[in-house]
């Protein structure tokens, strides 16, 4: 290392040669490593995604340490990992920001738990036990045949969604060794416990396709579902862990809706065409069968059938929607949303158990769906509950949608 650093300095290269440092949440070091003036490390997570900060210890007394001399993240009463640290160098501010200098350091072994993050600094209880929440991901790249199991341990349920999703995206990019388009089939299991002490589990599988970054597509939904659980309106939750299994390929696994044919009450199929000229006519109780042709690049067309039923109580105009994967134009936040209040999705659930069920059965990317609705939504952010619906899975992500007008009239009114 000394020879390499000498070579770097001789060639005026802007590098600092140093050994890496791994930090584990379960590895408890000697609290005596913290002394007034020594380096002080803060951890929000350990493992693949090791997020935190570095400062200076101010004082150590009676099993406690005060550090920084200013707040770390202005969290007030909190829980974070307190660690020793090894400084590498002081990085001076550049010409544009001459006063912005910082300490470059490796965070070392854990020595306690930070319980206060105040204006005067952070307070650590030395030798205290730290509870973390593991997120483990197993990623296989079908293109390169590489695979890896990654692990990140997160400090605090309030930080779990941004860090766990960042972990998933990072592990996919680490295995594929690229940032780019592709397809993925991803499953996750999330475990936790409610404030009342009831354990819960969410299981979700979905298929994704991205023309920009296939690591981001599943990570966005993973984060959204975790935020929805944590920010729910029914009970407080504590996460206890999550496991993710992802299979990734560089292939763009996608089909689009090419043609829709409709049969009402067993009649012949009619091609709707690009535009609908008149509403479909049906009676209460009629079955409406849809024959949907899906096309894809360099693969044969696939035809699937779906069926919905006009309810016996239905009357008037409705909408029959045939749709593939929901469009998500939001940006991936990941750890950038670490200190924001999770909002999550609006699902229309009336209980926590129903919320979990709705998240598990949310529309999938490789699913083609038909939903028959009547009326107008009172909340623009919440979809109407379908009067009848059907869905089937395909082997590709399905893009596109069609919305057909339907008119349901009683037999008497049609005479």
Core attributes:
single chain; 415 residues; mainly beta; Dna Ligase, domain 1; 3 domains; six-stranded antiparallel beta barrel; six-stranded mixed β-sheet; elongated
Task: Outline the structure in words.
The protein has 415 residues and is mainly beta. The protein has three domains: 2-126, no CATH class; 133-249, 2-Layer Sandwich (Dna Ligase, domain 1); 254-326 and 363-414, no CATH class. 13% of the residues lie in helices and 45% in strands. The protein is built from five helices and 22 strands. The chain has helices at 2-10, 160-176, 216-230, 352-360, 411-414, and strands at 39-43, 45-47, 52-61, 64-67, 76-91, 102-118, 121-126, 133-141, 147-154, 182-194, 199-210, 237-249, 254-264, 270-271, 280-282, 287-296, 299-309, 316-323, 367-374, 388-393, 397-399, 401-408. The strands form four sheets. A six-stranded antiparallel beta barrel has the order 1-3-4-7-6-5. Strands 2-9-8-12-10-11 form a six-stranded mixed β-sheet. Strands 13, 14, 16, 17 and 21 form a five-stranded mixed β-sheet that branches. It starts with a helix and ends with a helix. Mean pLDDT is 87; it is low at 17-22.
């Amino acid at each position: 290392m000394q020879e390499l650093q000498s070579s770097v300095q001789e060639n005026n290269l802007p590098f600092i040669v140093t050994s890496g440092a791994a930090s584990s949440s379960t590895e408890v070091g000697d609290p005596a490593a913290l002394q007034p003036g020594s380096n002080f490390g803060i951890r929000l997570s350990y493992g693949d995604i090791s997020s935190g900060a570095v400062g200076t210890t101010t004082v150590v007394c009676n099993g406690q340490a005060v550090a920084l001399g200013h707040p770390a993240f202005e969290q007030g009463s909190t829980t974070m990992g307190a660690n020793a640290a090894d400084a590498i160098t002081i990085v001076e501010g550049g010409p544009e920001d001459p006063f912005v200098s910082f300490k470059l350091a490796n965070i070392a072994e854990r020595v306690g738990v930070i319980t206060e993050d105040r204006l005067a600094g952070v307070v650590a209880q030395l030798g205290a036990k730290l509870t973390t929440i593991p997120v483990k991901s197993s990623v296989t790249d079908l293109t390169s045949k590489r695979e890896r199991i990654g692990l990140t341990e997160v400090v605090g349920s309030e930080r779990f969604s941004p860090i766990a999703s960042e972990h998933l995206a990072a592990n996919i990019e680490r295995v594929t060794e690229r940032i780019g388009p592709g397809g993925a089939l991803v499953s996750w299991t999330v475990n936790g416990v409610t404030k009342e002490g009831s354990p819960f589990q969410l299981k979700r599988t979905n298929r994704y396709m991205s023309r920009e970054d296939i690591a981001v597509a599943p990570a966005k939904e993973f984060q959204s579902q975790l935020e929805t659980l944590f920010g729910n309106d029914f009970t407080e939750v504590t996460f206890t862990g999550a496991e993710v299994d992802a299979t990734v390929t560089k292939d763009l696994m996608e089909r689009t809706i090419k043609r829709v044919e409709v049969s009402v009450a067993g009649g012949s199929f009619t091609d709707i065409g690009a535009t609908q000229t008149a509403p479909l006519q049906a009676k209460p109780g009629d079955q409406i069968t849809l024959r949907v042709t899906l096309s894809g690049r360099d693969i044969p067309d696939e035809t699937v059938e779906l069926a919905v039923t006009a309810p016996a109580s239905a009357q008037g105009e409705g909408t029959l929607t045939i749709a593939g994967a929901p469009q998500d134009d939001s940006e991936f936040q990941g750890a950038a949303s670490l200190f924001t209040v999770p909002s999550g999705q609006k699902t229309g659930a009336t209980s926590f158990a129903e919320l979990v069920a709705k998240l598990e059965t949310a529309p999938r990317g490789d699913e083609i769906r038909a939903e028959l609705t009547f009326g107008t939504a009172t909340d623009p952010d919440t979809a109407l509950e379908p009067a009848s619906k059907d869905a089937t899975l395909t082997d590709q992500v399905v893009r596109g949608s069609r919305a057909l007008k339907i008119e349901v009239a009683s037999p008497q009114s049609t005479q």
